[in-house]
Amino acid sequence: MSLYVMKFGGSSVGDTERMQRVARRVVEKQDEGHQCVVVVSAMGDTTDDLIDQSKLLNENPPAREMDMLMTTGEQISMSLLAMSIHNLGREAVSYTGWQAGFRTEAVHGKARINDISPIRVNKALEEGKIVIVAGFQGMTEEGEITTLGRGGSDTTAVALAAAIQADVCEIYTDVDGIYSTDPRVVKCARKLNEISYDEMLELANLGAAVLHPRAVEYAKHNNVKLVVRSSFNYNEGTVVKEEASMEQGAVVSGIAFDKNVARISILGVSDYPGVLARVFGALAQEGIDVDIIVQSGVQNGEADFSFTIARHESQRALSVIEGIRTEVPFREVTSEVNLVKVSIVGAGMVSHPGVAAQMFDVISKQDVSIKMVSTSEIKVSCVIEGSNLEGVVQALHTAYGLDTNQQASVGGPQVRR
Amino acid sequence: MSLYVMKFGGSSVGDTERMQRVARRVVEKQDEGHQCVVVVSAMGDTTDDLIDQSKLLNENPPAREMDMLMTTGEQISMSLLAMSIHNLGREAVSYTGWQAGFRTEAVHGKARINDISPIRVNKALEEGKIVIVAGFQGMTEEGEITTLGRGGSDTTAVALAAAIQADVCEIYTDVDGIYSTDPRVVKCARKLNEISYDEMLELANLGAAVLHPRAVEYAKHNNVKLVVRSSFNYNEGTVVKEEASMEQGAVVSGIAFDKNVARISILGVSDYPGVLARVFGALAQEGIDVDIIVQSGVQNGEADFSFTIARHESQRALSVIEGIRTEVPFREVTSEVNLVKVSIVGAGMVSHPGVAAQMFDVISKQDVSIKMVSTSEIKVSCVIEGSNLEGVVQALHTAYGLDTNQQASVGGPQVRR
């Protein structure tokens, strides 16, 4: 007998029929001899409908009242799911965030969980009941209702799994698991059987729709075994856990990319201490996130440097830089907006030098020039022209042995370098 | 400065426009220098929609989960109203039943309030905020969410008014107040300026749609001054309070009627001790409510008696009586289903003998025969043929000086006897 936390997102409980499917799925798990705690999101469009309604009354509603409003979405879906499970002849009991013992900081709209006292959840489990918990919500010490913000229900599931020492936290969604890259770009993208927490975090911009980075961090910190799988079929899904038992020989697990990249270059900057701090301090003050930063060597007391930001921020960034020209004199500032960032991600690359060199080789053979490079322990990123994205991702996917058919024929991941 | 509890029902907050009208109304009250606590029901059809959704998943859902589901309705309307009031530049804060301190017995679907600890409500009032409280709901000692059942939001308002020692509890609805009779039957029905708790209770089947009897009892018990008025205009409404200051000279305040009456007569029953207890015990066991009971004198050791029940219960009642024939022998049982009960209600009749006699006179002048009579301190009821209902109600309404035009011309209620 294992203890499962099963999280179902809004699309999995989007209508009555889907709700019944989830109920059957949970009952099947109990039939296999397991204990089940289910975390649910609001049904389908409920959250958006509530937001629309609020906007009609107040364009800028107080966050406290928005939390009061939004938390009804999960309360509706959890009670309906409980009824649907009762209809299958099983005992089920639903709890709001505060009833399940979620205590959060006193912030509305994006509260962090302070601690969880799952007394009632544990008691109901002992009584043989299926427990259903509202995702995304908690309560402050003062009894105020809060929400956890984006990815909240994933975080609820992971945090609850840690608190009740569940054996597995299953995240049910509308895809089969985590893929080696976006299947819309690479047709033979491969579903991964396993992936490490760190890799999952680096693949975030591919996987964010499936599993929120915050939940992954929480899982890593509390060593919660995650399984990402489909609520529409019985395929095995992707296990997210510590890297110890990663797939043999797989140096690169996936190819991530970000289509929304602009580069700003500041040329001929007088080199003196604090110049970088001044530039990036000014950008941070405006809330502009900077990703990759590259500085050239100093020549004749002048340096060039470049950085990447989200495309839609480029005009604002240029204004900020013009605004500090008197303090930080430079010769010229330029911007390029049609760029993308392609990354190879893999826990195995720590112990495999030459992975970056192979990546550059693959890209150059596509006749594509690399504009910027950035590396971390388990990731190498290259910034290239946006028009080259699909060809480069496909070539890297093939080069690192991630294509499905290739896997099937050679029996295991192959890495060429 | 007075402290007001203002209760708005589902139709008063049925859509965005009405919600805004309620917000303005509350702000106007604050502008007059008063403190305001608002109790809201779920918006328009929300409750029915939720019930419909639940029925699709479970024809007979567990009451606990129904309470979990239903209480979201008020939580949505209270938070939207808070946003709408904020939009008018005022501070408002909404509380669920449990946050407002409503503790109930551990029964789902129709819990009674055990006590109220309105600590947060009082604190928010002290801070100058408008407080909004979800009607119809509370929490048990064990932290389970409960609902108060039919008329729940009225009861919430009255109980809260008692707990915070409000000066007035205003019940906003879609009619101008309590009428002397149903305006659909008598065109010149008169809106009452004042009425006593007891009269209101006796008029319940006219006024139930406006004010639930349970809330009236609670108000009487705690001496809460009620005002029933329209949320769509500024007319003064009807004050419900102790009878001390009832309208001068008004012996009869209103004409109530019940269209749903059947009479069962059991003829030739052997008279012995306990026979009535046996008959009505058997009916009670089947959950059949009996209203008026009339027993004739005993002749030759045999008695006849009759009683009234709701029309749709008559077939079941006949079966019950046939079922006890061996224990309680009788000659014959008959039933009449097309009857109605007409009642005159008035606190003044205690000190005015002859009111009943006048009623019989008015009815006989309509050529209508009276089948049964029942009296209480402030009410006289006659059971008559259903086809005579409208004529009799109109005649009584006129006879007791309740018609509007008559009032206008003679300057005050007149009672002829």
Structure description:
Two copies of one chain form a homodimer. Chain A has about 425 residues and is of the alpha/beta class. The first copy, chain A, has a domain at about 5-175: Carbamate kinase (3-Layer(aba) Sandwich). The first copy, chain A, is built from 13 helices and 18 strands. The first copy, chain A, has an eight-stranded mixed β-sheet, sandwiched between helices. A six-stranded antiparallel β-sheet of chain A has the order 14-15-13-16-18-17. A two-stranded antiparallel ribbon of chain A has the order 4-5. In chain A, a hairpin with an 8-residue loop joins strand 4 and strand 5 (about 115). The radius of gyration of chain A is 24 Å and the shape is globular. The model of chain A is unreliable at about 405-415 (pLDDT under 50). At the A-B interface, helix 1, helix 2, helix 3 and strand 3 of A face helix 1, helix 2, helix 3 and strand 3 of B. Chains A, B: Its EC number is 2.7.2.4. Chains A, B: Keywords: Amino-acid biosynthesis, ATP-binding, Diaminopimelate biosynthesis, Kinase, Lysine biosynthesis, Nucleotide-binding, Repeat, Transferase. Chains A, B: Catalyzes the phosphorylation of the beta-carboxyl group of aspartic acid with ATP to yield 4-phospho-L-aspartate, which is involved in the branched biosynthetic pathway leading to the biosynthesis of amino acids threonine, isoleucine and methionine.
